[in-house]
Design goal:
By secondary structure, this protein is α/β, with parallel strands linked by helices. It has 16 helices and 17 strands. The chain is about 35% helix and about 20% strand. The longest helix has 19 residues.
């Protein structure tokens, strides 16, 4: 389908075929000829800035040179050695503001090397082959670690721990592995059940036992895990959604964007998902974009994305904002939600116009009302502190509502480590969560060896 969706014409609903087409792969994988041409664009820089810009430190020029010589297995191994979720990161990470922005080709007003597309070409090609798993486990250490959270940070940590010879039990509250990759990314970014296939690939190394449907703070506790395991890693992410704090928020039709995206990702028949005629999404991040674009691709007639500040302050990248515009999403800036109205069900939402003065956001005194029969909130998430209740013996020290860690990623509890979104280190990017999971595994290995 590319960047543009099939949209509703003359008020008619989209057919099942049109909806399925809308949720096909946003950017299909490069062909071998395209990959060869793209790889030849790389200058193979000495001290390449793209490596520094990659949070996981992939040797980008090397894997691209391997692609140019048709060594796909070698290219995939170069990528996966540093980023075991290289397939997802090639699809969902903002390469345009990371490695590709750092590409030296930009200095001569040329297009940067297609690093993300080339990374996907190598990883997808390897996963589709009959090659053995690219990593082997070290000799068993006899140690067992509990990893809580089967998202990018948890899976990355579990994989590296297994490589180092440890046995891992990985716990998650959901019924599937993958976390955000499985439940929180737009379906057209993770087409063909890629999140599940990648999780299966990671588990293929062995030594990792999934324990699903187990929620921290309910079915398991940190203190019990400490008693049972030699170390614990927390990669529990951010699972509590923020509220608008305005009247009418309880009306039918008002929903968290994350829940909406989850419904799409877990649906076997997208044409049966109910979508309103007039949809409003509140937020300025990638989740807001994902919700708005998918609402349009499901067949909503009018979709409005509303943000309280300007486009420069949106956390969604320019590429994501352009994706929304290309999909006929109406984007409004400088509007703050004031009141949701309706009789039992949402019918409209009123916004106050805003402006900034000396860095502070103020209301202008003007307001606008937008008609809607479905409203999605994408205003950020917080960590569920009930899972790490600081009033109990499980108590972990928090900072700004997230788990505080030292420079070894260890929490205030000895032998308990944390990484990913729940730790508040770095930005909320999949690639950073993968790197933190990897580094936490190395820190845990050192801790178990007594090396600090």
């Amino acid at each position: 389908m590319g960047d543009r969706a099939i949209v509703s014409k003359s008020g008619s609903a989209l057919s099942t075929e049109e909806i399925n087409a809308n949720f096909s792969d946003l950017h299909p994988c490069l062909t071998p000829i395209q990959a060869r041409e793209a790889s030849n664009h790389c200058l193979y820089c000495y001290d390449a800035p793209c490596i520094t810009a990659c949070p996981t430190g992939i040797d980008i020029p090397t894997f691209i040179r391997q692609i140019s010589t048709e060594n796909i297995k070698g290219a995939a191994h170069t990528i996966l050695s540093e980023n075991i979720m290289g397939g997802t990161c090639a699809r969902a990470c903002p390469t345009e503001i990371l490695c590709e922005q750092a590409c030296v080709r930009n200095k001569s007003d040329e297009k940067p090397v297609e690093i993300g597309n080339l990374q996907r070409f190598a990883v997808d090609g390897f996963m589709a082959s009959n090659h053995d798993h690219p990593f082997k486990r070290a000799a068993s250490t006899g140690k067992t670690i509990a990893v809580v959270g089967a998202g990018p940070a948890g899976l990355s940590c579990a994989h590296r721990l297994s490589v180092l010879g440890h046995d891992v039990d990985i716990y998650d509250a959901e019924a599937k592995l993958g976390g955000l990759n499985e439940y929180g990314l737009a379906a057209y970014k993770m087409a063909d059940n890629f999140a599940a296939r990648e999780a299966d690939f990671i588990m293929g190394i062995g030594g990792i036992t999934p324990k699903l449907g187990m929620r921290l703070g309910k079915d398991i506790s940190i203190s019990k895990l400490q008693e049972k395991y030699d170390a614990v890693f927390l990669g529990i992410g951010l699972t509590s959604t923020r509220t608008l704090g305005i009247s009418g928020e309880q009306l039918d039709g008002v929903k968290d964007a994350i829940s909406f995206i989850k419904d799409i990702r877990q649906s076997d028949n997208l044409s049966k998902l109910k979508i309103g005629d007039d949809v409003v999404v509140i937020g300025g991040g990638n989740t807001a974009i994902d919700a708005a674009v998918q609402a349009k691709r499901l067949g909503a007639k009018n979709v409005s994305l509303v943000y309280r500040r300007g486009p420069e302050q949106m956390t969604a990248t320019t590429w994501e904002q352009d994706l929304a515009a290309n999909n006929h999403v109406n984007i409004y800036h400088w509007l703050s939600p004031a009141e949701i109205t309706g009789k039992g069900k949402v019918e409209a939402i009123q916004f106050n116009r805003t402006k900034t003065k000396k860095g502070k956001m103020l209301n202008t005194g003007e307001s606008i009302k937008i008609k809607c029969d479905q409203l999605f909130k994408a205003i950020g998430q917080t960590m569920s502190t009930s899972a790490v209740d600081t009033s109990t013996t499980d108590g972990i020290e928090l900072t700004s509502g997230k788990i505080k860690t030292d420079n070894t990623m260890q929490t205030s509890l000895a032998g308990v480590f944390a990484g990913g979104d729940c730790s508040g280190v770095g930005e909320d990017l999949t690639v950073e969560a993968v790197e933190q999971g990897k580094q936490a595994a190395i820190a845990i290995d050192n801790h178990l060896k007594g090396e600090g």
